[in-house]
Hints:
This protein is an alpha+beta fold and 308 residues long. Helices cover 31% and strands 18% of the residues. Strands 3-4-5-7-6 form a 5-stranded antiparallel beta sheet, covered by helices on one side. It has a two-stranded antiparallel ribbon with strand order 1-2.
Amino acid sequence: MEFDSLTDLVQHCLWHGQIGSCPISTPCPTTTTEVPQPHAEIWEISRDNIKLLKKIGQGNFGDVFKALWKDSVDVAVKTAKKQSMPDDQFLREADTMKNLQHRNIVQLLGVCTKEDPIYIITEFVCNGSLEHYLRHGEGKGLELAHLIDMGTQVAAGMEYLEDNNVIHRDLRSANVLVGERNLCKVADFGMARLESIYIATTSRAMPVRWTAIEAIDTQEFTSQSDVWSFGILMTEILTKGRLPYAGWDNPTVIAQVRRGIRMAPDEDWPEPLYEIIKRCWDREPQRRPTFKYLSRIFSGYFADSEYC
């Protein structure tokens, strides 16, 4: 998170009681534990150094496990059998992730490709998906300031992707992970592409409730379509994980959105906040805010009297 002045930084800390996700009353945590460091050419990790512990989820091509690297470091491992990967889609996710390094992006640590099943190894994020955290975890008790801070972190991660011409294409609370002190990290790059515009050519099902209307109609994805998805994700955050367009089936969602209908705010949402979110759903992609703008506007939300 960046600030224009020392005064802005102090005001943010006084409101949140923390810098980012680190309380200002205690030193930021440090670690001396060795972790596998990414390298531009060397990504292969010895399978002998990976010990699968327990299944924690289901990916697009196989299971996801909590594991240990060298019996000391917690990691997450996505698995897939080679025959389940049309056009090497599974390894394309690792290829997209390998050069991405940001506090709010899940870090790729390596791969195991010499045997079946193939592994993609990432950092382990302790509190699981944002969706589960909001519905069933400690997120149920969060106040508005903390919820907006989580949205700010997602926007910061997406700003980084935007700057690097990465289109996520599947941004939703199920694909954001939550670590200690509500640290949020964008994850699941199985549908991501390193391009400014991507035309989908596969028959893979779309997450309709989160997908921009032009992407549904034309299969064209851009950072602006990710912004649409971010607006939907913000409604998930503010409602503690409620399904977007609750009560509508997918065909109804598509029909209503084409007619210009957008989700209405809950009674307790501040009107200026909803107006920012609603701008993400503009029918014209170029009129939507950028992630750079969203990151800045949310990070300064409570410091700016205009939004209080």
